[in-house]
Design a protein that fits this description.
single chain, 80 residues, alpha+beta, four-stranded antiparallel β-sheet, 2 helices, 6 strands
């Protein structure tokens, strides 16, 4: 299941996001979206979790939680 993570601090790393989600289940991948010209993070990313149950638990438990001083938005990723 793909999870959207928004309002990320610009200095948060993929490892830090992975650690936050790994406490709630297996994490397949973490991808923080970066600006293709500047390389700076855009403040959002995606986390892939194989178990829908674990992903739903992560969404409900991490939405609104602080990561690097910012309350993150965690929702199910919608298709483009």
């Amino acid at each position: 299941m793909n999870i959207y993570v928004g309002n990320l601090s610009h200095n948060v790393t993929e490892d830090e996001v992975r650690t936050a989600f790994a406490s709630l289940g297996k994490v397949d991948s973490v991808n923080i979206i970066k600006d293709k010209y500047s390389g700076q993070p855009k403040g959002f990313g995606f986390v892939e979790m194989p178990s829908a149950e674990e992903a739903k638990a992560a969404i409900s438990q991490l939405n609104g939680k602080e990561l690097k001083g910012q309350a993150i938005n965690v929702t199910e990723a919608r298709p483009r």
